[in-house]
Each structure stands twice: as structure tokens, then as C-alpha cells.
Write a structure and sequence with these properties.
Elements (H helix, E strand, L loop, with lengths): L18 H4 L8 H14 L2 H6 L10 H11 L2 E12 L2 E10 L5 E12 L2 E9 L25
Antiparallel strand pairs: 1-2, 2-3, 3-4
């Protein structure tokens, strides 16, 4: 997958984008980069990375099982980052992640992140209402096709 486009749809290759974070070769520079890498980790079943980037105060005893269940039961289709705001060690990222359902489902969330000792962690998120997609909008999967010709 190294030369393929990154699942987070950054338009970079996986090896240039999320892979160095997943392999702990570098840390996230900001909350948006961490959020994108977490989306890619869900997409690629990188459970250890998801646990490591979840704030320690939010980890549950059954975290691994919960994450594995989500990964086993969800086919992620695309990511759209809508907003990223950062103030010192606190940040919020609003995004929509699309997944296979019938019809296609979406997770629209405003996530909160904290930076401690130079390391970013996902803290929690607020679920938001689904966004409305137009039939002629570009498809969320990054295919370059119109929504109506792809996942619409």
C-alpha cells in the first residue's frame, strides 16, 4: 500500500502521509494530522495505533475488543475534513467519515484533541447531524466522479 494514495484522502501517498505515524517514525504535528491518521488506522485495522493515540484517561479495559469490532463491521469509504481549530494544546477537528451501509452512512463529528508533552491525543467527540450531499458534488471516496455516478 506504500505508494497508493493514503486512505485519509490527503492526495499524498500512504508512505508520505499516515504510514510514518502508524509506524511511530514520527508524531502528529497537529490535531488534523492525528485525526487523518486515526481514520486511516480504522481503514487499515491498525488497532494498536488507535489505542496509543486515544487519551489514556479515555481508554477502557475492553478498548481493543470495541475497536476490533468496529473495524470488522465497518467498511470506510472516504473522509472529508471540514474544519480544524487549534489554540495552544487544545484543538477541534470537524469531519465527516463515510462508510458502507444501505444507503451510505456518515459519521459527522467535532472531535477534541489535546497535546501533552508534544504528543497529540484524541479525547472525545460530539456527533453532529449528517451533512446533505448534492448528486453533482464530487464523490466522497476520492474517485473524481460525481456522487450520482459513484456512491450516490
Amino acid at each position: 500500500m506504500n505508494n497508493d494514495l493514503c486512505p485519509c484522502l490527503s492526495q499524498l501517498s500512504y508512505s508520505e502521509c499516515c504510514e510514518p505515524l502508524h509506524k511511530k517514525q514520527q508524531g502528529a504535528e497537529n490535531a488534523e494530522q492525528l485525526m487523518r491518521s486515526r481514520y486511516s488506522a480504522f481503514y487499515l485495522a491498525e488497532v494498536d495505533y488507535l489505542i496509543a493515540t486515544l487519551h489514556p484517561s479515555k481508554r477502557r479495559l475492553d478498548e481493543r475488543e470495541l475497536l476490533q469490532s468496529t473495524i470488522n463491521n465497518t467498511q470506510w469509504l472516504g473522509l472529508n475534513v471540514l474544519d480544524h481549530q487549534q489554540k495552544n494544546e487544545l484543538a477541534e477537528v470537524e469531519f465527516v467519515a463515510f462508510y458502507q451501509d444501505n444507503p451510505v452512512g456518515q459519521l459527522h463529528e467535532r472531535s477534541r484533541f489535546t497535546c501533552e508533552s508534544g504528543e497529540w491525543f484524541y479525547h472525545d467527540g460530539i456527533l453532529l447531524p449528517a451533512i446533505k450531499l448534492g448528486r453533482n458534488d464530487p464523490c466522497f471516496c476520492g474517485s473524481g466522479k460525481k456522487l450520482k455516478r459513484c456512491h450516490g
